Amino acid sequence: MSHISDRAASGANHPDAAASRHYFFVTGQTNADLIARVLCPFAKNDVTPYRIHASCENGAGDETTIELRVGGSSACRQR
Asked: Which residues, listed in sequence order, are joined to residue 56 by a DSSP beta bridge?
């Protein structure tokens, strides 16, 4: 797992700063559909992450890391 800095984790610049926040850090083998596969469960539950960052900057580029931040009460909604 990755450490998210206090400044980044505070979410103070996000409109839903007082609401619940959820952070996801995913690492997977680099391929063309990795980001789509990670985002699919959010889309199926009508949840839009307010921050998505993907990077494959390590060494040979065979591993991609994706950071997602989801905020607000919609992230906790049960269907």
From this structure: none
Cα torsion 21, 27, 35, 4 to 10°: value is 30
CB 71, CB 20: distance < 8 Å: yes
Q: For the stretch 23-36, what's the b/e string if a residue is b when 16 or more beta carbons lie within 10 angstroms of its beta carbon?
A: beeeeeeeeeebee
In order along its 79 residues, the chain shows pLDDT tens digits of 444 444 444 444 455 555 789 999 999 999 999 999 999 999 999 999 999 999 997 778 899 999 999 987 544 454 4
**CA–CA dist 58, 36 (Å, integer):** 21
Q: What is the pTM of this model?
A: 0.65
Q: The domain at 17-74 falls in which architecture?
A: 2-Layer Sandwich (3.30)
Cβ contact 61:30 at 8 Å: yes
